[in-house]
Amino acid sequence: MCHWLDYPVGMRSTPTPAEIATYRRDGFVVIADFLTPAETCELAAATAEAVARLGASKLAGGDWQEGDGYYDQVFLQRINLWKLSETVKRYMLGPQFGRFAAELAGVERLRCYHDQTLQKQPWANPTAWHLDDPYWPFSTRDAISTWVALDDATYENGCLYFLPGSHRMVDFRGPGIDVNMAALFAMYPELASIEPVAAPMRAGSASFHNGLTAHGAGANMTPRWRRAMTAAYFPDGATYNGQAGILPPAYAATLSPGDVLEHASELPIVHDAASIRETAATRGAAFAQSETPRA
Ligand SMILES: O=C(O)CCC(=O)C(=O)O
Prior knowledge:
By secondary structure, the protein is α+β, with helices and mostly antiparallel strands. It has a single domain, classed as Jelly Rolls (Sandwich). The protein is about 25% helix and about 20% strand. The protein has 7 helices and 11 strands. The strands form 2 sheets. Strands 1, 2, 3, 5, 8, 10 and 11 form a 7-stranded antiparallel beta sheet that branches. It has a 4-stranded antiparallel beta sheet with strand order 4-9-6-7. The chain is globular, with a radius of gyration of 20 Å. The structure holds 2-oxoglutaric acid (AKG). 2-oxoglutaric acid (AKG) binds next to strand 5, strand 9 and strand 10.
């Protein structure tokens, strides 16, 4: 139940030049109040509904059940809620997130790989330092994730931490999220001297990070949930690296390494700069015509 008063700030769809510069320099940027309180409530309610529908299944349209190991106590993870909820789809695959992410990444056309809600249970384990890209079926330096706080994310309940500039210092190897918080530093010792930046966020705020930016999250030391909604996007034209990830097995079976990942319904386009320019040009021409003085 949400009790916030709404205020007249709409969801943003374009980053400022300063936000773009920060993202490209640090590999992440935090946007305070990206969603209004009303939008945050709507997304949180739709996420909760989709999670309830999935039960113990981690993946909409797939075969991955929740277990009871360490990883399952890092967070409750439910993937591709957009397939179950038009509301989640409207947000996470919509033009605002798509355009914002694409402009940060400097990409003309962007696709969504998956969305996922990551919800730290009361007393959840920390999220070990990791990179996202090594989990994915493509290896590109221009993939980007967003992480939207559905509750206030605090030092106490497991906010994110980032290593600024790490996206320029790594390749596509990465450890899994496991009990060893420091596995990433054994793989990339040069990251160990970077000062981490904590990213506490009020609900509705969002961060965007490069798929190669090292990040993690603290434990949830509270008896309350810390819920987030996330999505992973990648540039159109990226090719298959031979690792299926959560691609539907029937689709993955048709792919060979090097094939372009262009499945229209499984990997939908979330931003296409050329079509936005075309629409703007058409509207501009129509407006100019309507303004033409008539004799
Ligand atoms: O929410 C978390 O604990 C970790 C989030 C994360 O790793 C991500 O969104 O890429």
